[in-house]
Specification:
The structure is a single chain. The chain is α+β, with helices and mostly antiparallel strands. The chain has six domains: 107 residues, no CATH class; 77 residues, no CATH class; 128 residues, no CATH class; 76 residues, no CATH class; 110 residues, no CATH class; 297 residues, Methylamine Dehydrogenase, Chain H. 35% of the residues lie in helices and 25% in strands. The chain has a five-stranded antiparallel β-sheet. Strands 8-33-32-31-30 form a five-stranded mixed β-sheet, with no helix packed on it. It has a five-stranded mixed β-sheet with strand order 16-15-14-13-18, with no helix packed on it. Strand 24 and strand 25 form a beta hairpin. The longest helix has 40 residues. The chain is globular. The two termini are 71 Å apart. The relative contact order is 0.04. About 5% of the residues have low confidence.
C-alpha cells in the first residue's frame, strides 16, 4: 500500500510477502496478473510484479506498493531517482532506499501454485468425417390437461350457493371494467372541453386545442394520484375517503385509468431503445436521449424527457429536469450502461462527451474533472469544478493551468484557497506553484497581513526577500506578532543586531513584553537557525524564560508549556539546561477559580461606541462623531483621527482596522493601517449590519439580499460572494477567523410548513456550509449566537420569578435578576444589574467585570488572547485571558 491517495500509472507492484504472508501474496498476484507480466523475487523476501506496460490503478487500493517508471527506473511515487541507472529498481527498506538491478533478480517459480492432482485427462479419438445430426422436427403434442386439484386432494365439489356467488362476482367485475374506464375518459373529456369552450367560445379551433391540452392535464393529475388511491386502505364509509366525495371520485377514476400502465410501458420501451443505441455506439442519439440517474433530480413525473439540444459537454450547474420514477433495477442498469459508455468514449478520444456522462448523467463531477485534467482540458475542468462547488483549491489550480490567472486569483482570495492550490499545483508543476505562491504573498500584503505574508513565503527560500518589509512592519506593531516575526528574522539572517534584540526580549522582565515573548518562543520551537551556535544560544535564553516565568510561554496550559520546553531543551546548551531547575507551575489562577475585576468608579468624559486592545498593547477606541483615538495602557493618548466611527472592524491578523460610521440604512467604511497610521479612501456600503471582524480582505455584511462578502482589496470594492437570499431573514450572525454562524428565519414555501428558524454554520475561509439545525425560540426572553453556532438563551420561570441562562443543551444556571446577553467574537457574557453595581459575568471563564456604579450600554470584544469590556459612559477594562488579570482600567478624557 502507499501513503499517496489517487490514481497512478503503475509499472510494477511491490508485494511485501513477509508482511502479508505467502498465501495472501499469491492471491494478490493471481488477481492482479495481466498478459505479459513477470514476477521477480527480491533479496528482502518481497515480490516484484512487473507489467508489460503501465496500468492505471488507485494507489490506496492496489495489491502492493505502486512503482512508477522514470527514465527506465522503477521507483515509488515521489522518490528521487538521482544516481539510478535505467533498469534499476528503488525499493524502500527500513527508512532507506535500496537500489537493485532488474536483470539480476530471479524469477518466482509459479508452477507449484497449481494443484493438478485431481485433473482428469480424457483422450480424444480422431473422427473420419463430421457427424451431422438429422434435423427431424418433433411431432406436435397437445399440452397436458390441467389437473383437477379437488380430485387429487379428495375434496368434494363446492356448495351450490358458493358457486352461484362466485359467478355473480365474476360477472360484476366484467360489467364494471369497461364502464369505469369510459367514465374516466368521458369525465376528463367533458371537463377539458367544457372549460375550453367557456374560455374561447367563438373560436372552434382554439376550443379544440385547449380542450385537448386540458384533457391530457387532467389525465396526468389522475395518474399522479394513483399511488395515493392505491394505498388508501384506510377509507371508511361506502368507499369515500376522508377528503370527501370528490377525493373518492378521483380515486375511483384513477383506479380505472390506464395512464400509469401506459407510462410504465413507455418507460420500458425507452430503456430498451436507449440500451440499443448505446450498444450500437450511436453516441449522439444515445447521449441526447439519456436521462440522468445521479443527483437530486426534479419533481417526479410520468412523462419522458425530450432529447437534448446543444453541445454534449458537462454543465457547471445540473439542469433542473424532472425526475422519472424508475425502479431500482432500471436505475442500476442505466448506471452500468453510462459507466461503460464513459470508458469507451474516453478510449475513443471523445473526452468532452465522456466527461458529460460522468458529470451530468452520473452526477460524478469530481471524476469528470479528473478526466478533463488528464487530457489537458483545463478550462472546461476549471469551469466544472467551480460551478459544481468542488474543492476551491482544485478550481484555483485548474484556472491557473488554463492560463486564466485573474480568475484563479479571484477564487483563491474569495474562498481562501491559496494553500490548497499551491500544494496541489506543486505536485505537477513546481514553477507554476512558485508563481502562485508569490501571488499568495502579494494578496496577504495587500490585506496588510504581515504575518500571513511571511508564513506564505517562508517555505520557498527564493520568496523570503519579498517579505522583509512585512517583517519590519509587523515588528513595529508589537505584541505576539512582533515576537513571531522576530523569530523568523533572527533564524533566517542571524546578525549581531537581531540576535542581541532577541536575547534582550527573552531576558526582559517588563510585563508589556509578555505577549511578544510568547510569540517568539512559540515560533522558535518550530524554526531552526541557520547558525547552530546562535540557535543554541537562543534556545537557552528561551528555556530560561520558561523556567523564570512560565506565563512567558505559548499559553497557560501545562501540557503545551512542557512540549515547548522539551523541544527547546534538546537544542539548548546541555550544561545550562542541566543546571536549570524543573519547569514550575504557571502561578496563574486556574480556570475554575473565580476572579473579580473592578472597573473605574467615575464615568469618562467621552462616550465609547467600540474598543479593542491591539497587539501593540494599545487600545483603539471609537467615539462616534468625536473621532477615533489610540490610547496606551497608561491612559495617555498616542494618536487620534478626526474621522467619525461608531464601530471598529478589526482584521484577524490585527494589522489594520476598518472605521465604520453609520448613516441610516447606509454606512461609510474607511481603512486604518496601524503600522503606518494612514487612512484609506472612504467606501460607502448599504447594509443592515457589519460584522466586527474580517480577514483583511473580505468584509462580511448583512443587506436586503442576505449575507454579502465585500472584497476591499480590489481596486474597486465589490461583492465577491453571496449567501442566502431575500426570503431568508438573518436574526443574528457571528464570526470568528475559522467559522461563520447565522440564526435564520426561513419563510415557508407554498404547500410546506410555516416559517421556522434554523442555525447555519460555515467554515472559513472556504465558505463551506457544514451544519444546519433547527432552533426552537418560543418562550425565550433573549437569544444570542456565537461563531461556533452555540445559542445562548434566557428564559423566565413564572413560578419562581427567576431567569435561566442556557447554552445549547448544556445545564442551565439560574439568576435572580433579569440578565442581558452580550457577545464579543467567540465569547459570551451575562450582564446583571443591581442597585449598587453592574456585573458582567464572562461565560465559561469564572471571570467577572464589576462596574461599581450603575452603567449604561455595555459592549465587549474578544480579540487574540484579550477581552475588552467598555461602557458607553467612558469606562473601559482590558483583561488578559492568558494570565486572567486586568491589564488596563481606564476612563476616557478630553
Amino acid at each position: 500500500m502507499s501513503a499517496f491517495r489517487g490514481q497512478l500509472p503503475a509499472r510494477a507492484l511491490l508485494v511485501d510477502v513477509p508482511l502479508v504472508g505467502e498465501v495472501e501474496a499469491r492471491r494478490r498476484v493471481v488477481e492482479t496478473w495481466q498478459s505479459g507480466a513477470a514476477l521477480f523475487d527480491l533479496p528482502t523476501g518481497a515480490w516484484l510484479l512487473e507489467f508489460d506496460q503501465a496500468v492505471a490503478v488507485r494507489a490506496e487500493l492496489a495489491a502492493g506498493l505502486v512503482l512508477v517508471e522514470t527514465g527506465g527506473v522503477l521507483h515509488p511515487h515521489g522518490t528521487s531517482v538521482e544516481g539510478a541507472q535505467p533498469g534499476d529498481v528503488l525499493v524502500p527498506t527500513a527508512g532507506t532506499t535500496t537500489r537493485l538491478s532488474r536483470a539480476a533478480l530471479p524469477r518466482v517459480d509459479r508452477s507449484s501454485w497449481l494443484d493438478l492432482t485431481d485433473l482428469r485427462i480424457e483422450p480424444l479419438a480422431a473422427l473420419d468425417r463430421a457427424v451431422v445430426a438429422a434435423a427431424t422436427p418433433a411431432p406436435w403434442q397437445p399440452p397436458p390437461p390441467a389437473p383437477d386439484l379437488r380430485a387429487v386432494a379428495a375434496v368434494g365439489p363446492p356448495p351450490r350457493r358458493t358457486r352461484r356467488l362466485r359467478s355473480a362476482a365474476t360477472r360484476s367485475r366484467r360489467r364494471r371494467r369497461l364502464p369505469d374506464t369510459l367514465v374516466a375518459k368521458i369525465v376528463a373529456a367533458i371537463v377539458g372541453y367544457g372549460l375550453a369552450a367557456l374560455v374561447a367560445a367563438p373560436h372552434p379551433t382554439l376550443v379544440l386545442a385547449l380542450g385537448t391540452g386540458l384533457f391530457w392535464v387532467i389525465n396526468s393529475m389522475l395518474a399522479r394520484s394513483t399511488a395515493g388511491a392505491a394505498g388508501g386502505g384506510g377509507q371508511s364509509g361506502r368507499g369515500r375517503s376522508s377528503g370527501g366525495w370528490w377525493d373518492a371520485l378521483l380515486a375511483r377514476l384513477v383506479r380505472a385509468s390506464s395512464a400509469v400502465r401506459l407510462a410504465r410501458n413507455a418507460q420500458h420501451r425507452y430503456v430498451r431503445r436507449l440500451t440499443a443505441a448505446f450498444e450500437r455506439r450511436d453516441w449522439d442519439r444515445a447521449l441526447r436521449a439519456a436521462i440522468a440517474v445521479g443527483g437530486p433530480g426534479g419533481r417526479p413525473t410520468l412523462r419522458l424527457p425530450r432529447p437534448r439540444t446543444g453541445d454534449l459537454v458537462p454543465h457547471p450547474q445540473l439542469p433542473g429536469a424532472a425526475g422519472v420514477p424508475f425502479d431500482v433495477g432500471a436505475q442500476q442498469h442505466l448506471r452500468t450502461l453510462y459507466r461503460r459508455a464513459a470508458t469507451e468514449l474516453d478510449r475513443a478520444g471523445r473526452v468532452a462527451e465522456s466527461a458529460f456522462v460522468l458529470a451530468d448523467l452520473l452526477d460524478l463531477p469530481a471524476e469528470a474533472v479528473a478526466l478533463l485534467e488528464r487530457h489537458r482540458r483545463y478550462q472546461l475542468a476549471a469551469t466544472l469544478a467551480e460551478g459544481r462547488e468542488l474543492d476551491p483549491g482544485m478550481a484555483v489550480r485548474l484556472w491557473w493551468r488554463a492560463g486564466d490567472r485573474d480568475r484563479a486569483l479571484l477564487v483563491a482570495r474569495t474562498r481562501g484557497a491559496f494553500a490548497a492550490a499551491v500544494e496541489r499545483l506543486a505536485r505537477v508543476d513546481a514553477a507554476a506553484a512558485r508563481q502562485l505562491r508569490a501571488e499568495w504573498v502579494r494578496a496577504r500584503q495587500a490585506a496588510d497581513d504581515h504575518l500571513g505574508a511571511v508564513e506564505a513565503a517562508w517555505p520557498d527560500d527564493t520568496l523570503r526577500p519579498l517579505v522583509v518589509t512585512n517583517i519590519q512592519a509587523g515588528m513595529a506593531l508589537g505584541g505576539p506578532t512582533a515576537g513571531h516575526l522576530l523569530a523568523h528574522l533572527v533564524t533566517w539572517r542571524p546578525s549581531s543586531t537581531s540576535v542581541s534584540t532577541a536575547i534582550a526580549l527573552l531576558d526582559g522582565r517588563d510585563k508589556e513584553l509578555a505577549s511578544a515573548q510568547r510569540g517568539f518562543v512559540a515560533a522558535l520551537a518550530g524554526l531552526r537557525c541557520t547558525d547552530r551556535a546562535t540557535d543554541r544560544r537562543l534556545c537557552t535564553a528561551a528555556l530560561r524564560l520558561l523556567v523564570r516565568d512560565p506565563a512567558g510561554g505559548p499559553g497557560p496550559d501545562a501540557g503545551e508549556r512542557w512540549r515547548f520546553a522539551g523541544r527547546l531543551r534538546d537544542r539548548a546548551d546541555r550544561l545550562a539546561a542541566a543546571d536549570l531547575p524543573p519547569l514550575p507551575a504557571s502561578g496563574i489562577a486556574g480556570p475554575d477559580t473565580p476572579v473579580d475585576i473592578s472597573a473605574a468608579g467615575e464615568p469618562g468624559q467621552l462616550p465609547i461606541h467600540d474598543a479593542v486592545l491591539l497587539s501593540g498593547r494599545a487600545i483603539l477606541t471609537a467615539h462616534g462623531d468625536f473621532g477615533v483615538r489610540l490610547i496606551g495602557l497608561d491612559g495617555q493618548t498616542r494618536a487620534s483621527w478626526d474621522v467619525p466611527a461608531h464601530q471598529l472592524v478589526v482584521a484577524d491578523h490585527g494589522a489594520n482596522v476598518l472605521l465604520v460610521a453609520r448613516r441610516g440604512s447606509a454606512c461609510t467604511v474607511r481603512g486604518l493601517d496601524l503600522s503606518t497610521r494612514r487612512l484609506r479612501p472612504t467606501v460607502a456600503i448599504r447594509a443592515h449590519r457589519v460584522l466586527p471582524s474580517y480577514d483583511g480582505a473580505l468584509l462580511t455584511v448583512v443587506d436586503d439580499d442576505g449575507i454579502a462578502f465585500v472584497d476591499l482589496s480590489a481596486d474597486v470594492p465589490r461583492v465577491a460572494w453571496r449567501e442566502l437570499d431575500s426570503d431568508v431573514a438573518v436574526l443574528d450572525i457571528a464570526r470568528s477567523p475559522t467559522s461563520l454562524a447565522a440564526l435564520l428565519r426561513i419563510t415557508g414555501q407554498p404547500g410546506s410548513d410555516a416559517d421556522h428558524t434554523e442555525v447555519w454554520r460555515w467554515d472559513l475561509p472556504g465558505l463551506m456550509l457544514r451544519t444546519r439545525r433547527p432552533a426552537e425560540l418560543d418562550g425565550l426572553a433573549s437569544v444570542v449566537l456565537l461563531a461556533s453556532s452555540a445559542l445562548i438563551t434566557t428564559s423566565r420561570d413564572e413560578a419562581t420569578d427567576t431567569y435561566r441562562v442556557k447554552e445549547n443543551y448544556a445545564a442551565a444556571r439560574t439568576v435572580a435578576a433579569e440578565p442581558t446577553l452580550l457577545t464579543g467574537g467567540t465569547m459570551s457574557a451575562v450582564r446583571i444589574d443591581r442597585p449598587t453595581d453592574t456585573t458582567v459575568e464572562i461565560g465559561g471563564s469564572h471571570l467577572r467585570v464589576v462596574f461599581p456604579a450603575a452603567a449604561g450600554a455595555i459592549g465587549m470584544r474578544h480579540h487574540a488572547d484579550t477581552l475588552t469590556v467598555w461602557e458607553e459612559n467612558g469606562r473601559l477594562v482590558v483583561v488578559d485571558l492568558t494570565r486572567r488579570q486586568a491589564v488596563a482600567r481606564l476612563r476616557t478624557r478630553l
